[in-house]
Amino acid sequence: MGLAEPTVRLGVTGLARAGKTVFITSLVANLLERGRMPQLLAAAEGRIEAAYLRPQPDDTVPRFPFEEALAALTGPEPRWPEPTESVSAIRVALRVRPAGPLAGMRGARTLNLDLVDYPGEWILDLSLLGKAFDEWSASALIRVAERPGGEAFAAALGEVDAAARHDEGTAKRLAGAYAEALQAARAAGFSDCTPGRFLMPGEMAGSPALTFAPLPPGPGGRGTLRREFERRFGAYKSRVVRPFFRDHFARLDRQVVLVDALEAIHHGPEAVADMRGAMADLLSAFRPGGSGFLERLWRGRRIDRILFAATKADHLHHSQHARLTAAMEALVADARRRADFAGARTNAMAIAALRATVEGEVEHGGEALPVVKGIDAATGREVAFHPGDLPEEPAALLSGGGGGWLAEDYENMRFRPAPLTLRAGEGPPHIRLDRAAEFLFGDRL
């Protein structure tokens, strides 16, 4: 089956609220019904004869809840589907006729596209593998001190003697305060919030591997809180992070990273700078070359295409999309220059996996102001928003200078999915989802 039916394993991840579930649902639906996929070349040429769902090959990984998510988006009272918080997967089989001058001499073949969904917070944890506890603590304490929620953790830390004998009640209080600080930072638009399982503990909630926190330097002999936290940090890396890398991440062929860049831009320069650093960490995790700690784990697999997609492009008028793409490119440019991808291709674009708005104009100050219109998530009424213009030069975002874009009204831009009436052969409406698909796996069709 391997030779006759090749498989592409596409990893789909995203930082907080980037829309992974909607992306996978809309992509699968638009592959099954390809009327809205003109930029996917094989679909435009009519070479995809059929697309259908198959049982996923890994019996130990939950199936992505495609049918439930699609029903939520397309039902009589559409709503956003419940987000996924762990690894899941779904397989789409594409029956494709070959292209080229000899196409008539070859029959159609089947390509299996495996979509592997996992939280973006988990991939940031890969950077922990090369760090000792003291090194991680030093950087984590600097980050938490500069972010919302840091004061409460600093107060809790000030009441603790790390050189005293380990007490589980103290450990739980300190770990809980650190987890709350991470939640507050994420709510304020910050991206680099590790360890990721502190935000999405799932069945590991309350386990010793998730009951530690960064500590300032100092003595810590056997039986002390410091020694126990150091041991648990090591257990987190060996029992949580490494198995994720080995069982899922290292088996991927292609990758899309979804980023809510607009949210970071709205929260200001500090959130943008933090997202820029998170992108650098993400790209280092994808790096197959060199002699670092991840290189020793790769087992010869290689991710050869990576797409960074700024989501929620439908929150902006199309006249701003080029600037959003430029901002996304600027966020990852520095990391792309520093990383050696050993031949991997990267790209950045602005997309909306499900378009929840339409465009229009309103009169403001005697001039026509471009707006987006949608159903307000809080009131259920149709509203029109102009969130402001992104800077013409993305360097203004990275330097923290200027301002005036994505004004306070952007805080209220929370739209419901619009009711859909899909014609035969059409998937849900989107913005550039077909271009994203062409980059990610069009060459394999």
Specify the CATH homologous superfamily of the largest domain.
P-loop containing nucleotide triphosphate hydrolases
CATH topology of the largest domain: Rossmann fold
Strand content: 15-25%
The total strand number stands at 11
CATH class of the largest domain: Alpha Beta
Pfam families: DUF463
Protein name: YcjX family protein
InterPro entries: YcjX-like
Question: What do these coordinates show?
Answer:
This protein is α/β, with parallel strands linked by helices and 445 residues long. The protein has three domains: 7-118 and 248-354 and 424-444, Rossmann fold (3-Layer(aba) Sandwich); 130-243, no CATH class; 358-416, no CATH class. It is built from 13 helices and eleven strands. The protein has helices at residues 20-32, 41-44, 66-74, 120-124, 133-145, 150-158, 168-187, 225-247, 261-267, 269-286, 321-338, 395-399, 433-441; strands spanning 7-14, 48-54, 88-96, 109-117, 254-259, 305-310, 345-350, 358-364, 367-376, 382-385, 415-416. A seven-stranded mixed β-sheet has the order 2-3-4-1-5-6-7. Strands 8, 9, 10 and 11 form a four-stranded antiparallel β-sheet that branches. Helix 9 (261-267) runs antiparallel to helix 10. Mean pLDDT is 85; it is low at 288-296.
